[in-house]
Amino acid sequence: MFQDLLQYTFSGMTSGAIYALIALGFCVVNNTMGIVNFVQVDFVTLGGMLMFSCLFSAGLPVVPGLLLAVAGVAVVAMIVERLGLRPARSDNHLVLIFLTVGISIILRGIIKLIWGKNRMALPPLTPDQPINIMGASVLPQALWILLLTVIAIALLTWFFYRTSLGLSMRAVASNPTAAAVVGIPAGRVRLTSYAIAGALGGLAGVLVTPITTLNYDVGVLLGLKGFAAAILGGFGSFPGAIFGGLGLGLLESLSAGYVSSAYKDVVAFVVLLLVLFVRPKGLLGK
Amino acid sequence: MMSARDKCIYFISLHRTGLTVSLLTAALLLYPLYEDNPYTLGITNLIAINTMVVLGLNLFIGYTGQISLGHAAFFGLGAYGSAISTATYGLSPWPAMLLVALLVGLVALLIGVPILRLSGHYLAMATLGFNFVVHSVLLEWDEMTGGPSGFSGIPYLGVGDFSFDNEVRLHYLLWGFTLMGLLLSLNLVRSGVGRGLAALAEDETAAAALGVNTRNAKIKVFVLSAVMASIAGSLFAHCYTFISPDSFGIFTSTDMVIMVVVGGMGSIWGSLFGAGLLTLLPEVIGIFETYKDFVHGIILVLVLMFLPQGLVTGLVDMVRVRLALRRREAQ
Q1: By the CB < 8 Å criterion, does A221 face chain B?
Q2: Which of B301, B302, B306, B318 to mutate to test the interface with A (most CBs of A within 10 A)?
Q3: Is the complex ipTM higher than 0.95?
Q4: For residue range A1-51, what is the model confidence (pLDDT) as tens digits?
Q5: Quick check: B101 and B234 in contact, CB under 8 A?
Q6: Residue B330 and residue B317: Cα distance in Å, rounded?
Q7: Which site in A171, B47, B103, B255 is 20 to 30 Å from A193, CA atoms measured?
């Protein structure tokens, strides 16, 4: 009984950590540009794909492979911002959001061209031997996911509170006009926010694809759950994204365990809708 | 005194909407005489169905300034509602369609009241979540919906012994409905209610200050657009006699919104063009099989980047600017 609960909690935290990473990526872009960046979805896929190429085509060891894959997605994200969003002639948010949907379709097309449509398997970071923690068996990959998520959040906190670029990004998030008045370069801030979003999405992809298997649209559902997590916590709030991610992950695994595994997504989304009915700005939203 | 030429131009500009609708109707009446290839007619029939949904959605997006990423859910509820009530429970198709549209309208009202308190990204997520729930139920509740393998054996629509069972007959049926939807939308946006809605889309606070009941207006348009999507869904089911949950997922919803955005938010004629272009596009670029997604995405991005106000409004503005420039040069 207790073991089951512990098992569900562990698996919920694992997927929750992934949702939190993706949700953070959504929040970073939203805070500087005020849009939902649907390309985030493909950053997740791309992370897994680049990791696959680093390991098997380039033959790199795991750690450089991971760093290179994450950096690669960040670079792609910057290209997306520079060539895809900056030339747009509109400040209508709906148009910009659908521009990201269009770019996401293009990116998915390119991924399909390069890596094909087949499902691929990515090995976990360390060999797969379940560890027993108080009667619940946990994959080492799950522990890696939790550890690296914590590290990523710590780095992000350091960046936003201790570096001048991070501080200027928070300035833009809190008041774009005032930030422009004091001379904060909007272009660089947007580019950085995309790079961070790409790195977070890429990391989520590298970490989760050994569990889910890898194909060209693996990121879509994960990405949308990440968006749901960001909304659940209050869109744009970093603690909200982490909280929302873990909440959504736990909700899913507990309802899969105790209610019905076929309807686990339904339960998760119905709870999301109920939360929004009661708190229209999310749990931690302003 | 106006010259005969000026009078003629004045007449045309005064009656431009009516004349365009009449021209379109005439073109659609004659079209099957010229084109009898069932494949081509199948595509234009699909355009008619998509236009129905997009018209309703454009009223919601363009005239209340809200976003819905969940209209495929209403489309799907309409389709499955008609399928189940006719094929499983043996209701006759026309009353079933009406009943289902009423029920879907009721569902839209029930979820619209709480959901439409949200705005922006929260509303996008809530409608997306609703679509997700409906899609999952269609997939999982297989004793009722047939599950992932779909629902077949839906009867054709008919009047007496006459049944709408081939592409030419379906052409008249579907475009008949779509033209009714088009007329309804064109008249609605020119009525007092429609003007209030347009104000709402521009600035909600200002519209409320001018006495538009914004909350009620949003809910009414949401219900209207859901009913239009439901009727389009019923027609879709009776037209293909087979449906599967794939047609009603979140990608269909985003496709519908893309049609609205590409055609032009708030442009009724844009709905027709957006639906037409994005339904034709995959067929036309089918020749580049491997690059299909790529080309689809590029076209979308280019339209949004260079004509962000939508194809129809964007091109009309472009022509106007050209004409104005030429007139100035002539002076």
Answers
A1: no
A2: B301
A3: no
A4: 788 899 999 999 999 999 999 999 999 999 888 888 999 999 999 999 999
A5: yes
A6: 20
A7: B255
